Task: inverse folding
């Protein structure tokens, strides 16, 4: 009877071991996707339900930090990955790296637009309603203007790509422009707004040195949500970009195989 029992276990293992191994292999490949999902669930739940500091003007709107600022962190990382792939394309002119650069830039722009929208909503509540600033003053805000310029520069990148019919020329010109666009992010978003007067944290006269990173901006409880939120949004952007890249590679399989 004992012999039959071990034979049964052996048969079960023989039949299900390959399936189990394939499932484990799939989990090993997609662990970061699962992590992204869990972190974003945590961000949304904790972001809306956990206690936040009661600060003048900001009040409950400070919860937008987990979305607005974290999306912009994700945007910069996605643009940085796109920038790296453009350089890699120019080094060997492998067409698949142009595909990588394009889709990471696309998702970076999506996060940028979402970050801009959430920032505009935040502005309408804090600067206009609570601070009593006029709409004209807000529209002249250097941070908003710089962010809009940066997004328009990347918008021109996609218009430029659409203007070429020759694939090689499109990839080469786009790679060079993508490098220029990434370099222009820093003066338009990070440098110039911090050199001139601005309502945004980090400007001259502000108590904040680095927005969302200074100890005056975040307490320990908010940091427990903020940093996981940055990771979660960034991984989501990478996940969506890789899905689009896989579809593009399937469509252009013959071209990428030749490259």
Result:
């Amino acid at each position: 009877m004992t012999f039959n029992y071990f034979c049964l276990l052996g048969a079960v293992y023989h039949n299900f071991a390959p399936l189990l191994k394939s499932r484990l292999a799939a989990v090993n490949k997609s662990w970061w996707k699962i992590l992204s999902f869990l972190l974003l669930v945590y961000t949304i739940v904790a972001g809306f339900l956990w206690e936040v500091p009661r600060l003048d003007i900001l009040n409950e709107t400070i919860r937008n930090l987990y979305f607005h600022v974290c999306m912009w962190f994700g945007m910069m990382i996605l643009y940085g990955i796109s920038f790296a792939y453009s350089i890699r394309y120019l080094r060997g002119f492998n067409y698949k790296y142009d595909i990588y650069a394009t889709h990471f830039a696309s998702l970076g722009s999506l996060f940028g637009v979402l970050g801009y929208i959430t920032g505009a909503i935040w502005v309408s509540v804090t600067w206009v309603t609570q601070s009593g600033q006029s709409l004209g003053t807000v529209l002249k805000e250097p941070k908003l203007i710089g962010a809009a310029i940066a997004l328009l520069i990347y918008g021109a990148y996609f218009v430029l790509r659409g203007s070429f019919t020759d694939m090689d020329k499109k990839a080469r010109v786009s790679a060079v422009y993508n490098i220029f666009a990434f370099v222009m992010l820093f003066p338009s978003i990070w440098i110039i707004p911090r050199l001139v007067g601005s309502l945004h944290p980090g400007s001259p006269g502000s108590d904040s040195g680095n927005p969302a990173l200074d100890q005056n901006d975040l307490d320990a409880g908010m940091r427990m949500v903020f940093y996981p939120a940055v990771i979660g949004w960034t991984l989501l952007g990478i996940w969506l970009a890789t899905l689009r890249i896989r579809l593009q590679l399937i469509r252009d399989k013959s071209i990428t195989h030749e490259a």
Observations:
- The chain has eight helices and no strands.
- Residues 22-26 have pLDDT under 50 and may be disordered.
